[in-house]
Amino acid sequence: MTKDAIAKAEFSGAKLALFLGSDLLVIQRDDKPDIPYPGHWDLPGGGREGRESPEACALRETFEEVGLRLSASALSWSCAYLRPRGWVWMFASHQPAALAQEVRLGDEGQSWALMSPQNYCAHPLAVPHFAEQLRAYLAAGGA
After folding, report:
1. Beta pairing class for 86-95 and 13-20
2. Contact, 65 vs 49, CB < 8 A?
3. What are the beta bridge partners of residue 114?
4. How far is CA 62 from the centre of its chain?
5. Residue 38 main-chain phi, psi, to 5 deg
6. Helix (H, G, I), strand (E, B) or coil at 138
């Protein structure tokens, strides 16, 4: 089995680097001590439910967290990487800036914002491994 096949079968969650125009949509995590990275700036996404695919996980979580319903065809890049709790997928999608008018914060998170990807990567409250994956995407010519 290839790395990607293993990661698709056994992944624990998925995230989406969602660009609205040239900016990245980010969510400030709840400030609860029982969650990883409380108060940090996060990307839409989260844990796998049932046997859903990595794409379905990222898209479902994006809808739940920010109210945007995207299709799998909107995903332009993907990467699987290993974390202590298992494989995680990260996707990228580039959408028009006007879509920001449709963002509605769900039940998780304190707020949402648009941030340049460079500012996110350098932000002291960016979730470190998401910033690392985003830097790799940008270095490969993404965005």
Report:
1. parallel
2. no
3. 25
4. 8
5. -60, 140
6. helix
Q: Domain extents for the chain?
A: 3-139
Q: Which CATH class is domain 3-139?
A: alpha beta
Strands 111-115 and 45-47 turn out to be unpaired
Task: Say how far residue 112 (Cα) sits from the centre of its chain.
Answer: 13
Minimal CA–CA distance to 11: which of 90, 88, 91, 72?
A: 88
**Would you write out the chain's pLDDT as a tens digit for each of its 143 residues?**
577 777 688 899 999 999 999 999 999 999 999 999 999 999 999 999 999 999 999 999 999 999 999 999 999 999 999 998 889 999 999 999 999 999 999 999 999 999 999 999 999 999 999 999 999 999 998 87
